[in-house]
Amino acid sequence: MRISDILKNKKTFSFEVFPPNPQNSSISDIFSTIDALNQYNPDFISVTFKSSGDFAQNTIDLASYIKNHTSAEPLVHFTCGALDKEDVNRVAAVLEQEKLENVLALRGDKPADFAGEYLKCFKHASELMEYLQQNHKFCMGAACYPEGHIESESLYDDLVKLKMKQDAGASFFITQLFYDNNYYYRLVRVARNMGITIPIIPGIMPLTSTTMFNKIMNMAGASIPFEMRVLFDRFRDDKKAMYEIGIAYSVNQILELLANDADGIHIYTMNSAKVTGDIYSRITNVIERELR
Fold this sequence. Notes:
This protein has about 290 residues and is α/β, with parallel strands linked by helices. It is built from eleven helices and nine strands.
C-alpha cells in the first residue's frame, strides 16, 4: 500500500531501522528486531540507504523482509548524491521488481569513505524526485528540518526548497530529529503559510546514553533545551539514569506533539527494539487513541 493512501485516512505511527555494517554483522541479525517492532503495529518502517557499497542491497533486502513478514509498509530511503541516472534506474528497477513502492527521496551527505565524484548528477533531492516522477511510479516522501538545513541561508530559504519537493511529487515529509517541539510547531505553521499542504511527520530520536548524546550533537547539531541539558549534565556518568531520562524525555515529547495535533510519530529506533518498546509501553493508550 502507498503511504500516501494511509495518510488520507489517518495519522501514522512508524519507525526507522538501518542495515548493519556487513563487515560487522549479517543482514539477518536485524530480522528479529523488525519482528519485535512489528508487535507495535507500525504503519510503515523506513530503511536507511547508503548510496555506495553493499548497503544498497542490504536496504532492499531489509525492505523486502518488512513487506513479506510484517504488517507494516516498507519505506526505502533513496539517497542520490553518489548516483547517476543509470544508477537510479538500476535501483528503481530492483525496487519495482520487489514491489517496494514507497521511497524517501534524499540527497544525502558525502560518505567519509567515498572517493568518487559526489553530486555528479542530482544536486538536490527535488531533482531526484522530478526524475523519479517522470520515469517511475513511486509514492515519495521527503526530509525536512525543524531548525532549518545546515546548508540553508535561512529558514525561509529552507522552506522554499520544501515547497519545491512538494511540487516535485512528495506526498509527505518526515523531519530530522529535534528536541524542542517549538521548532516543529514553527516549521508547520510557516510551511502552511507558504502553501505546503502535505503531512509533516515529526521524527523522534531517543537519547539514552552519554555516547549517543555526544554523537547526535556532533552529527545533527540539534538544539538541546535547557531542562534536558541539566538532566544529562547531572546524570551523565550513570548509565541507568541516563537511559531512564532518555526514555522519559521522548515519551513527554511524543505526548505533547500528539496533544498539539502532529501529523504522526516517526521513531528513529537505532535498531533497538527495547528502547522502542519501553517508550511504547508508556504511551500505549495515547497511541491507540490518536494514531489508530
